[in-house]
């Protein structure tokens, strides 16, 4: 297992090298010169340098005054040293912008993922073991509703019911009006209170697909020959389902869990926008539409690293769930 992990890590480094190169080339080949626009904006400030001086400085700072290949290696060296430059849109270091907005998105994504697993997997197993029963129809209906509901519609509906009609939650925002007058614990609870509705939206719109996936895989496993053999040996139905069938159902689910790692940090653009949550999804969207090349490159590279890490974690979990993988 140790040799396998080392091999996968080395392969991931090679893949990341080429992914970063593709990202850099795409940024260099954008049809609009955001560098010129940024230089023009900076030159219009009182007492600022001329447009030409700003243009030369920005091109040299981000290695845009040389060819793509040498420019990429120069930029790669800066990234390895942890220097990602300053955000053009937010006028502060890229890493600082990332630190300020990643917390809310991570909490939303992590809590939503845990709730999805707690809700979807047991309900999917129940729907499979009681196929064509009332419970199966009810669970399938709930799953299809979650899959079919558009995020913006369900989020607006939730805000109308719980924020406008019932008044239990604030309509938008991450903190309340009295946030800075509270102690530390009160501030944490206030932020948690404002994240209830966004987490509810993320959970409901995502739980349906995982539930259906669990049900489908469970039905496939329950029809296997070794399940019939286990029942013929006189094992209890509970042991057949949760000891033999469910463990094999986990194998494809591991792929979903491993692939969920980037989603914990990528943010939820629509949900964050509708609830005015300053998360990484909304901030990265603003940066990309505003031509913030330094932040966009950092964000895309970070997502590439998370994707590779998620695939590695999924492969390791395969060996944990399936003994045949460990033997191989």
Secondary-structure-based class equals: mainly alpha
Number of H- or I-type helical stretches = 15
Helix content: over 70%
Subunit organisation of the chains: single chain
Number of strands: 0
Compute the CA-based radius of gyration.
Answer: 25 Å
Instruction: Write down the secondary-structure element order.
Output: HHHHHHHHHHHHHHH
Proportion of strand residues: under 5%
Mean model confidence by pLDDT: 82
Explain the layout of strands and helices.
Layout: H1 2-28, H2 34-43, H3 51-61, H4 68-80, H5 94-129, H6 134-148, H7 151-165, H8 184-222, H9 225-232, H10 237-259, H11 261-266, H12 269-274, H13 280-289, H14 293-321, H15 323-327
Structure, briefly:
The protein is mostly helical.
Comma- or semicolon-separated keywords:
328 residues, mainly alpha, 15 helices, globular
Report on the structure:
There is one protein chain. With 328 residues, this protein is an all-alpha fold. The chain contains 15 helices and no strands. The chain has helices at 2-28, 34-43, 51-61, 68-80, 94-129, 134-148, 151-165, 184-222, 225-232, 237-259, 261-266, 269-274, 280-289, 293-321, 323-327. The protein starts with a helix and ends with a helix.
